[in-house]
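Need tokens for this chain, all 678 residues.
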Amino acid sequence: MNRDVSGEDHRSNPPGSTSGSDGGNSVGPGDSPSDRWSRVGPPEDEDPGPGVIVKVKVKSEFVDDSFTQHEGFIVKVKVKSEFEDESTFQDTDLVHPVKMEDFQSHFSQSSQDALSNECVKQEPCASSLWELKNAPKMHEESFRSEAEQGNTWEVKACTAVRRCTTVRECTQSVNKSPIKMSAALRDKWLKEFNTGGDGATFKYVSSDMAFCRACEKTFRAKQKSELAQSVRGDRHKSNLALKKKRTVTQVTMEDFGGGKRHKCDVVAQEMCQAMLAAGIPWSKLENPALRSFLEKHITLQIPDESWIRKHYLDKCYDEALAGICADLGQQPIWLSVDETTDSADRYVANIIAGRLSKEGYFRPHLVQCMFLEKTNSGEIVRAVNDTLRYLWPDFKPECLKVLVSDAAAYMIKAGHALKELFPDLLHVTCVAHALHRVCETVREMFKDVNDLIATTKKVFVKALSRVVLWKEQQPNLSLPPEPILTRWGTWIDAAVFYAEHFEAVKDVVDQLNDDDAMAIRSAKDLFGKADIKLSLVFLNAHVLFIPKILKQLEEAGLELAKAFQLLDQAKEELEKIRGCRKEILLTKFKAVLQCNPDIGVLRTVALILDGDQHGSEVGVPAGVKLADIPLLRYCPIVSVDVERSFSVYRNVLTDRRHPLTMENITKIMISNTYFNRS
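Here are the structure tokens for all 678 residues:
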């Protein structure tokens, strides 16, 4: 019975098989150990034909323990080549090492069939261990050139495991060795892909990372297929087409190696900053005309909306926060807090912070925009404290000097609570709100005038034919103003307009048909009242000063002494009014100022800064450090800055941007106000 390499028993020798008499599987007396080797294939003196001889090192199973065991054997297997034709098999002794992927795919089936074939002859392995171990690397450097020469090739594989008994185990152990690319091989790949007359599109920056000039990015390129995949990508093709149109100097590999940012990254972040400052939604980048225009002149592919929001919004926000912290630092500051309700019925609180300095006025920053669960004093205290601790983890409580808010009851209560946390804090309510409260009292006193303004507004709103009639009758006069009750002084401005153009407005309204709208009939009745003119004359004569003073208080950089001078001027104008209305308005004005917690302290500070003798007689007020008085020279006593931040909020949160999260709204708001600073 004969036994082949596969371990199967054969009762008879098939045609072409070797027997003990021809030096095959049996070993007789006097035979040398070299006779114990197997050969698969035709005899050596015959032409092997159009095939491949594969040498595989295996463990011999035909000998017993009495014979010396060799480290390995070579089994030659004839396989079909995919790379050569019949004319290329000229040198049968040439061995070409190949990758194990090719060896396994082309050899596994043929080798198993061949090992059980008839012709078996064993040969010792003449290859060194270094050659067998570095076969993959040898293939990368020499396979293509030798294949082009038309030589026959053989696959040589070796096992490092002593007890490897099958061809499959042998190939698997060789395949585990890592593939190390040489510089020559990488240069060969780059030479193949850097074609087209565009210069070196790809370049290796490390052993397994390549840089693409067209895409301005790095990618993994440990294998040739990864380079090919990058070349076939749609983004690479688009960037390569744009690269041909470029006229500016592109980032070089030296710049990349030196740690400099890529141009596309810089352009994308600056574009994000510009759109945040201008209040332009990122969805506008999806417009085909705008995108093609930008790509044409920037010569870079413009990222889409989601990419900018995910990768550059945080960078812009971090840059804004860093700038805010650097500007304010650990210096004396003032805060202004206010709350409103947005279009989605959520409570939103904004916090403004500014630096106090005797050198001049410093423009404040929006440092927080957050949702509140409730509108109470506890939420306001938590918002202020968390904001300061977030910006400056080691914030010193004595650095917070002034808090400005409105006169709501929960704001007054929050101010008292914050004084426990910040010992040097002075809390004042907005004096512009105080004057606005006087305006509301005036509106309540003149109900007929208020009804006239509201009714006439309804007559011309969304009525194109009536607007056309107005322009025909009064070509040099604008439409009657539409006051906004929450905007300071706008109602008095509207009342003054009617007082100055009463007859012009009445003539246009009289020409309208009463049956067209109920507002027309009501307006005609109001214009016909006898005392309506007298009321308008009083308003034009005695309360016109309030909108003017409000505009002056809204100016940025107003000195503390100047602000109190404007308040004194308003009080003097109210005292000039005659009759019972004087007492009503003057009492209201004094009442709202008396509810202001620390307005008296700041008035004394203003007198000291202005050099007034009365301030010198009073002395330094209690709770104020002598060194802090010069810092309060430009201290604000109006909350106009935080009110303006809500206008920015309404512009950001349009009807199409309601899905924005509060986190992103905060980042957009802070970035918008910071990058809009001149």
